[in-house]
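// run 5 | inverse folding | seed 20
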């Protein structure tokens, strides 16, 4: 009887061994390639582009943001102890799979009646993160175990821990402990203290739930649990844990009051918007670098950008899109709003929308005539005119007869602009537009003199910057520097400005633009200081513009509907460039001047 029992026990054991071996071989054949661990890790993430504003604050993150890699020998002991205490107490003892840990977790979960602890080791978590999908199946779990054994065979324990901590998601957009240390505390990992190490270790289980920027009270509670675990594992005394718990409590006050560099400059606050989309597109056109994480330092002035958004958000009298762009007189873009709501529409109306500028185009129409000798005192004729069957009308529907060029300009008379353009030649008007940086395709019809040709807000604003700087060409730019690691890929250098208008002729246009604000259609933009600008309204009030400048600040405002439909009247009056756009311009410019003590666009 005994021999029969031993016989079948042996046979059963052999079959279990055979079946088990075949199972291992079967799943081993289907394991992903483990050749080149670092390259396998890299291909699971996207290249990141982190954009900074002019004050080096994070403004947008595209892709996955990883901190610098930390070797195992450089991991702080306090961080190692905190992570092992809360995540895998027998990490330095087991061979990749902790049977005791699995049994302990199962007992705790059954006792509590809910899932409290997990049985996976750090090595298993690394295997899953590196090579497997997050699906919960028996097949995936078996592969995870096999890969954990492989990692333990291939690497030293400290190397496994460093690879894990360099890759793991730590919440608020940060990957790896170095990124998290800078994110939450504003320091490098090597400089964190025990309380900060406890907070980082506490993130690993559920980074979205336990990160202090999103849930500071829950993060503090979790950090204290980590400190208690460090006491249980002998890494801290109870007295030391009490001291560090007080430091954890204090972190809440620092975070709320914005006294930690990490809380002020969080990656989680770096959200794409109209400006960052535009800057990133330009950056990708400048550099050919692929794969490496890139930091792009931009020209965006955070104070001006916030004011621009505030001014536009305060417009409640009109249900239409509004775009704003502000730049220096040499083209440094300091603020950009491409629409009312980026989350609803990422179409950038400051850089992408082609719209009719109306009379805002007239300074360009008059430029070649001024270059040919036209002066503000020159007498022009405002009377009916017909060209090839086309008869332009004035906004008022009236004609004034003989009128000086200055008055025709500040009153935005249409017939005089058409006569001047026809006399000087439409070809010369088109050439003037190109000199001023207008690259959009323009109509050759006589109506070009009334701004029927479509342009973008950014290029027309740049043309006005040329008027403001004495006649030098302007190319709008939003990037100061691009780097990958310690390598500088691009550095903006102030280029030699080319004169495209003589200083005398630029001064004439400047003088005329100032009269628009003091005497003409732009009076709503007059804030009592030195300013010049021009209104523009397209046919049927489909577009309303005001573009002007003061000191070193050039600002363009556009209002319109995306479908090109007419703007709804305000208080029974049609929307024109001299109305709401001029008022928005005035409010933005005065806010900037007050907030910057007169220093603009820096």
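// decoded
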């Amino acid at each position: 009887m005994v021999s029969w029992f031993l016989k079948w026990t042996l046979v059963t054991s052999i079959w279990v061994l055979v079946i088990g071996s075949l199972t291992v071989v079967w799943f081993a054949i289907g394991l992903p390639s483990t050749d080149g661990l670092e390259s396998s890790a890299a291909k699971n993430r996207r290249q990141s582009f982190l954009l900074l504003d002019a004050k080096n604050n994070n403004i947008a993150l595209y892709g996955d943001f990883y901190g610098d890699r930390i070797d195992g020998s450089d991991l702080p002991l306090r961080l190692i102890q905190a992570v092992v205490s809360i995540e895998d107490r027998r990490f330095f003892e087991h061979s990749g799979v902790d049977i005791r840990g699995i049994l302990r977790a199962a007992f705790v979960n059954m006792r509590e009646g809910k899932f409290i602890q997990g049985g996976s080791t750090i090595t298993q978590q690394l295997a899953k993160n590196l090579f497997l999908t997050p699906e919960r199946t028996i097949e995936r779990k078996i592969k995870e175990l096999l890969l954990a054994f492989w990692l333990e065979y291939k690497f030293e324990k400290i190397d496994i821990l460093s690879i894990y901590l360099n890759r793991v998601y730590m919440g608020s957009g940060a990957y790896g402990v170095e990124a998290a240390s800078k994110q939450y505390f504003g320091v490098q990992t090597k400089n964190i203290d025990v309380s900060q190490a406890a907070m980082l270790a506490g993130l690993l289980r559920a980074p979205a739930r336990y990160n202090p920027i999103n849930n500071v009270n829950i993060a503090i509670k979790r950090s204290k649990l980590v400190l208690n675990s460090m006491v249980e594992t002998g890494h801290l005394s109870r007295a030391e844990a009490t001291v560090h718990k007080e430091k954890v409590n204090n972190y809440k006050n620092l975070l709320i009051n914005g006294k930690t560099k990490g809380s002020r400059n969080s990656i989680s606050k770096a959200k794409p918007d109209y400006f960052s989309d535009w800057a990133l597109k330009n950056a990708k056109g400048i550099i050919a670098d692929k794969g490496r994480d890139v930091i792009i330092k931009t020209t965006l002035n955070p104070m001006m950008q916030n004011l621009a958004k505030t001014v536009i958000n305060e417009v409640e009298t009109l249900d239409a899109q509004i775009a704003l762009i502000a730049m220096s007189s040499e083209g440094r873009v300091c603020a950009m709003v491409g629409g009312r709501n980026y989350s609803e529409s990422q179409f950038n109306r400051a850089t992408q929308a082609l719209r009719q500028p109306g009379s805002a185009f007239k300074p360009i129409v008059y430029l070649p005539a001024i270059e040919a000798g036209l002066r503000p005192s020159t007498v022009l004729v405002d009377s009916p005119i017909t060209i090839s069957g086309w008869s332009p009308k004035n906004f008022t529907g009236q004609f004034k007869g003989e009128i000086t060029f200055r008055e025709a300009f500040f009153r935005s008379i249409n017939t005089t602009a058409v006569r001047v353009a026809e006399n000087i030649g439409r070809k010369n008007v088109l050439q003037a537009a190109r000199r001023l940086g207008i690259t959009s395709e323009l109509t050759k019809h006589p109506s070009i003199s009334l701004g029927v040709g479509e342009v973008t807000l950014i290029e027309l604003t740049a043309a006005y910057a040329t008027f403001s700087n004495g006649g030098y060409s302007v190319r709008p730019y939003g990037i100061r520097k691009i780097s990958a690691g310690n390598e500088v890929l691009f550095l903006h250098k102030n280029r030699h400005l080319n004169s495209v208008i003589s200083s005398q002729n630029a001064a004439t246009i400047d003088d005329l633009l100032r009269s628009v604000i003091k005497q003409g259609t732009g009076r709503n933009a007059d804030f009592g200081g030195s300013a010049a600008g021009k209104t523009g309204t397209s046919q049927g009030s489909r577009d309303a513009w005001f573009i002007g400048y003061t000191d070193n600040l050039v600002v363009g405002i556009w209002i319109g509907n995306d479908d090109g439909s007419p703007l709804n009247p305000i208080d029974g009056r049609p929307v024109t460039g001299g109305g709401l756009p001029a008022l928005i311009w005035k409010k933005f410019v005065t806010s900037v001047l007050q907030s910057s003590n007169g220093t603009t666009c820096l």
